[in-house]
Amino acid sequence: MKNDMSRAADSQHQSPKLKSKLMARIKPQALLIQSKKKKGPTRISITTIVMCNLIIALIALSLVATYRYWSRRSPDQSGSDLSTLEDIGGFVKKYDLPGYAILNTSKGPIMVELFKDGSPEVVDRFLDLCQKGHFKGMPFSHVIKHYVIKGGGSQGLGAAEDWISKGKLRSQLVTRPKHEAFMLGTTKNRLDDKGFELVITTAPIPDLNDKLIVFGRVIKGEDVVQEIEEVDTDEHYRPKSSVGITGVILKREI
Ligand SMILES: *[C@@H]1O[C@H](CO)[C@@H](O)[C@H](O)[C@H]1NC(C)=O
Question: Which parts of the chain span the membrane according to its record (predicted)?
Fold first, then answer.
């Protein structure tokens, strides 16, 4: 630079032709200096631009992320809201579960208490079937005096007849702790929709829990049960005249 300046100073004492020649030689260097001077701010501005771009990109990314988060969350949230409701529903259900059912029959109403705590699964199943109207119009397919009345399930007694006849015999022979009469139960391994059998005992039966899943008991309408028990049957315990359940009313309390 010093060199350039001295040269420039020298150039004042030189001919205009040489001066212009020298100027032409200086010019690129001056331009270089200028460009160097320019490059400083240019480099800063590039950095600034890059930074700005980065910030914009970050903002955009965060916006996209936020949008995605919320758009993903909103159905999730409604889902979790639903599940919360369901949970609350389940919670409420556990406590508000109908504890009683009135079986309307062609002979009158039979009120039963459901053992929600003792047999929760079967009670759930029973309530579910009640809500589906499964028992509406269900005839008592088998009536065995001083033993049980049974509705639903298969038309043939099958295994039930077996345990009924055996049980009946045994109940006469064995003096074991007996279940009270008027218990509400269903035959084991028949919890599917079609096979769900409703059994009401009309006498104390020993080993009842071996044969039935007891899930309730009659608390009102024992006389109705006995009336049904009195209907004439054929040799296969099938009532000669139709008697059945006309409807079920579920009650939380009585
Ligand atoms: C049950 O019987 C009562 C009285 O007979 C009647 O008012 C009610 O509507 C019946 N309900 C069903 C579900 O059958």
Answer: 44-70
CATH number of 100-251: 2.40.100.10
Contact status, residue 67 vs residue 74, Cβ threshold 8 Å: no
DSSP class of residue 191 equals: -
Q: Where are the domains of the chain?
A: 100-251
Best probe residue, ligand 1, of 104, 106, 250 (max atoms within 8 Å of C-beta)? 104
pLDDT tens for residues 62-113? 887 777 766 655 444 443 333 333 444 444 455 578 999 999 999 999 999 9
How far does the centroid of ligand 1 lie from the alpha carbon of residue 250, in Å? Answer: 11
The atom of ligand 1 lying closest to the CA of 104 is 1
Q: What is the pTM of this model?
A: 0.60
Give the helix, strand, coil percentages of the chain, each rounded to 5: 50, 20, 30
Report the C-alpha gap between 213 and 206 in whole angstroms.
13
Q: How many angstroms separate the alpha carbon of residue 104 from the centre of ligand 1?
A: 6
CA 211 / ligand 1 centre spacing (Å):
31
Distance CA(75)–CA(77), nearest Å, equals 5
The alpha carbon of 209 is separated from its chain's Cα centroid by a whole number of angstroms, namely 32
Two tokens, residue 115: 């053992």
- Expressed in angstroms and rounded, the spacing between residue 74 Cα and the centre of ligand 1 is 45
Q: For ligand 1, pick from 245, 249, 250, 251 the residue to mutate: most ligand atoms within 8 Å of CB.
A: 249
Q: pLDDT for 178-214, tens place per residue?
A: 568 899 999 876 555 567 889 999 998 877 888 788 9
